[in-house]
Amino acid sequence: MAEDVKNVNENKEEQYSLNDDRRVKVLSPGALVIKRFLRNRLAVLGLIMLITMFIFSFVGGMVVPYGQDEQFYTYTYLDKEYVGVTRNNDLRYAVAEGQQFPTILQAQFLLALGKGNDTFTYKDVDYKTVNEGPDFYSISTADGTMLAIAYKDIVNAADGMAEPSFSVKYEGLKAYVNGASSFVADGKEYQLDEDSNILLDGETIGYISRFVVAARENGVVLTRDFKERLEEALDSGVQEFSYTGEDGVEHTYPISYDASAQVWSVKEETKTYVYSSYEKPSLKHPLGTDNNGMDMLVRLMYGGRVSLIIGFIVVIIETVLGVIMGGISGYFGGWIDNLIMRLVDIFYCIPSMPIIIILGAAMDNMQVDPQIRMLYLMLILGFLGWAGIARMVRGQILSLREQEFMTAAEACGISVSRRIFKHLIPNVIPQLIVSCTMGLGSVILTEATLSFLGLGVKFPFASWGNIISDVNNSFVMTTYWFIWIPAGVCLLITVLGFNFVGDGLRDAFDPKMKR
Amino acid sequence: MAGVKELAEGVGRAHPEPLNKSPEQVDVEMEKRKERIEQEIHTNKKRSGSLEIENNYTPVTYDDQYILMVNALKKYFPIKGGMVTKTIGWVKAVDGVTFNLRRGTTMGLVGESGCGKTTTGRAILRLGGEKSGGQVLFNGQEIYDLSPKEMRALRTKMQIIFQDPFSSLSPRLPVGEIIGEAVREHNLVPKSEFNDYIDKVMDDCGLQPFHKDRYPHEFSGGQRQRICIARALALNPEFVVCDEPVSALDVSIQAQIINLLKELQQKRSLTYLFISHDLSVVEHISDVVGVMYLGNLVEYGSTADIFRNPLHPYTKALFSAIPIPDPKAKMNRIVLEGSIPSPANPPSGCKFHTRCAQCMERCKVEAPKQIEVEKDHYVVCHLYDK
Amino acid sequence: MAKKKAEGYLSAKESRRISKQNRKITNELEKKRKRKNVPESEYLTTMHDPNNSVEFDNLHTYFFTDSGTVKSVDGVTFEVPIGKTVGVVGESGCGKSVTSLSLMQLLQRPQGQIVEGEIRLNLGDKAYDVAKMPYEKLQDLRGNFVSMIFQEPMTALNPVFRIGDQLEEVLELHNKDMSKEKMKARTIELLEMVGIANSEGVYKMFPHELSGGMRQRVVIAMALACRPKVIIADEPTTALDVTIQAQVLDLLRNLKDKINSSIMFITHDLGVIAEMADYVVVMYAGRIVEKGTAEEIFDNPAHPYTIGLMASKPVVGKQVDHLYSIPGKVPNPINMPNYCYFKDRCEMCVGRCDGAYPEEVSISPTHKVSCYRYYADAEKGGNA
Question: With an 8 Å Cβ cutoff, are A427 and B172 in contact?
Fold first, then answer.
């Protein structure tokens, strides 16, 4: 055991006697701190994390080809409800010219129909019904005056044609149910072809069909041809139906049938030019795109830049204010000290979160420009945060002032400014650096929190907080993981990095310099 | 040696078994403490009216054989209290100290911790604010009358070496800078000679030139103390206050530093005020010794006189308490009761009367005056007031 | 002049290698130490002399630091007889405190390790080797058989507890079935024993209400609470004023006789040692350079270091113009030379000093010194 130990230091060159001072390498306190810092693995890890995030945020933004608010578009095929088709199962009524067939009579008629009667009476008037064919009835008064017809096969007007008259409908339907190929109405002869078209002088004026085809959107006129083809398709029970329109482009329409409503809905695939939002990660967009069709990776980089810059500026504001106030307080003491410390107490009492939230809401209301808003945010955060640093600096200065080297400097007749800047400040800096480093992490978190609440950095500027705030429901959270996980990881790495480095620095600065 | 031994034995006879009494003594001490606390409360109430510091002394005239003349020097620290921090009393750290210091000699200042020796040393250098009363004449010049600028210029003439070599060096400056800073500040040497000058000072103090670039944390206690000495001497002072310069050092290092101080004194004809609680060191280095108790000099005279013939009961007790590195030496000593009272509220009359074995009624009410018992041997005690 | 290459500072690589090696060594030692249920036979031992209460035998305590192994205690052998006071003197860093911490197993682990040697502790009917004892077992002995008085009375007492509570806590640790009233009576008795008359009052006080001397008395009372056989006093009076020091030293001396225990008194003050100790051990750079009775050491110091140490301390009543100061400084503890550690500073070197570190030589049955200058005398004496 003892042997092992002895071997450790054997291969040293023996130029000086063993306890010669010159054998020791000269290290300034700063170099010592760095050396100790670099020995701390966790701190080095933290440093690497930070450097990575810095390069990612600042260099990354320059390297990538996209801009921070560049939006990407894409064509998507949207299945739009195009046509609804129903098979008519209700009796429809056509009323003869000059006659009345009010709803109450319709009801009486249906009642009689249900009972199998061919007559019914309403208000002492007798009505007679005649079954002219399947689902086709004519209703007349007892004196034989034709009142109305009830039918299920519908006589439609052809494109651009007027609605057929009652007698055309009546005669047409009669011919349709009887299988006749022509009929006469209003003194004109109409042909009825195999496709149930009603022709007058070779011109189609209407057609008879059990289906009701209606466009779902206003202003869309469906051609007879289209309707016919659609009906054929429906009859054959296919799921999809192609139709070559007037423009010569073949469209495909998926058909779905809702059995409960007995409605076929025909959808049209339309190609739309939209933001490519929530695009899955691909080579073009390694982390996909966000809600607004912006590249996530680029947003992350710019967001990091904003978060880090805000962190640094806020900490710089805090530090400058804190050092000045704490320095004055500690060095001069007396009533100034008292005043500043009470001010610090007051600042400690201010509930900063509510204030920032209120101010954020006020700025929302005033519609402040996002860039100016960012500036305000930094100022507010900095202004609310200096108290802790001031207190720390004051404490440090108070304890340093009592150190003998300060007395020694005074005894040597060294001027006050030199005493402050050469002896006092350098000894406060270690603690300052440590608390700033730790502070950076917490400022970044605060900023993220505010941005998440929509009160911090606003669109179009990115920040990790407002990137995460895109995730506002569980659907987005579970489906579009690539939106919030990378931002969360960035935030985690940065804050953790700052804390590791801060801890490492504190250990490294820890003045165990006494040998 | 002989003197002290005899003294110890003599006193021992008077108190054959001091230790067996110690419970009662401590009892008494506790009683007194209680009394004192009550008294303190009492006086605190009255105090508000009498916060004025008495400052009546007869001014001294300058005598040029003395580099330093201290006359009735007072240094009080305020006790703050109340809602709006207001002075409610004084800690009388130095309460009327008078002595003169000849050029080229060393005066030792001894006493227990808390007796005000360090404060005296600093007050003489006008470190840590204004005096509360009395005079400090440095080469005939009242230093508290100087403007800050004049004071800064005078600082090169009077220097201080501290007890703790760890806290008295700024940790972030290299040694060369620590030593040379003030030299440059006061433009003591031309720029071209600056480096050589610093090297020479460092060499005088037993430091090597390559130490210049190093930082204090790389040095051992003894070397740091050398740096402190070099810093003080680089300004080429006439007078140096050594505030317990060897207390924090190991025995063998102590000897090195003491020798160095003595050597430098001869070389540069320095005057020292050597503050220490270690009597043997004080005896070794001093020509004159002052014994302090609770802000006052109780005895003051040449080293030989004081060590041969201590007069004040406190000096006697102090000397008898020194451990002698000889196992055969007789262990007879005066054990002082308790510890030093609070300087915020010192006992009335003679401040030592609470612990004095020879306390008389008179001591409790009347403060004794300085009496010259032999030539240049002063004592402040009623016992010698004939 | 200075060659850059020759600078002996450690490169990062080297330092990593050392710390890796250190970890290996300390892990092994720690593993050995952390075993559960160590059989008593493993640390049961016998005293070489039943009149001793502690025997340090070839104790090696090393600190495995990142810059190398510091051999704080490197082969220390001495004994503390029952009822006697042994003074350990030496400068800071000579290993005197580490020796006592080894006995209490209060070393800063895992860096600090006893790597070799025995510390035999006499428990009356049996003896234990503290170096091999498991920590929990020693816990039972602490306070009971060995207790320690620290240098700083300020920091040795917990400022938020009353004096009485702190004392009772110690008592309770070792006398679990003592009743409350009995405990209080014993505490007050203890306070009286250390010369605190107003013991009832002090019992209820907080540490800050007491002066330094009173505090040190309380600390001593704590150390004595369980009537330990061995008291380690690590610079108990260094922080005190001379007058208070005198009080405390008197107290310690009287108490030792009262409860008949041994004191291991560690100090750098030769005066205090002379007053307190029956035996004196002088340590230098982790080794004992000289040991003997107090009279022998003070009347006839043999080792050049002891002589130098005594000459460098001014003595009241003894006027010298120039104090002797030992030249040079203590060698680097990481890199000790392979000859006499004091040789570089010694002004009494003889030719043989170039050889290996000198073995211990007896000048008288009790007086031993590690110096080549006495080799001849010893050989002669041996022959005669």
Answer: yes
